Amino acid sequence: MAEVSEWTILIDGPAIYQFFGSIFGSILFVEGGPSFVLFGLLLYMTRNTKIGISVVYILFSIFFYVAFSRWGHIPDFFGTYLIQFAGYQWMMVFGLPLIWFYNGKKGIGLKYFFYIFYPVHILILYFVGIYLS
Hints:
There is one protein chain. The chain is mainly α. Helix content is about 65%, strand content about 0%. The chain has seven helices and no strands.
C-alpha cells in the first residue's frame, strides 16, 4: 500500500489549482461556473435591446436545462466545474418579465430592507426544506 505524505498533497494539480484559485480568484470557482461569466458578458453586450437580452436569457435557460439533464449527474471535470448549477436553474426564464418591465431608472432604494430580507428568506426556505424532507 502506497503511503500518502504531506508532500503528496502539495504536488496534486487540482489541489494546487483550488488553493491558488481561492486566493487569487478563478473563473472555474465563481458562483455558477464559467457559463455564468459568459452569460453576464452576453447580457452586457445586449444591454441596449430588450429583444437581445430576451434571446440570450431564453437560450441560456434552454442550455442549462439540456446541459444539466445530459451531463449534470456525471462527476467528471465537465460536470463538476463547467456546469455548476442545479437541475432547476433553467427556471430562471420566469424572471424574464421582470427584466422586460425595467425602465432603466433607479428604484425607491430599499437597500437596507434587502440586507434583512435576503438572509431571513434563505433561513425560511431552509426550514421549509427541512420540514418537507
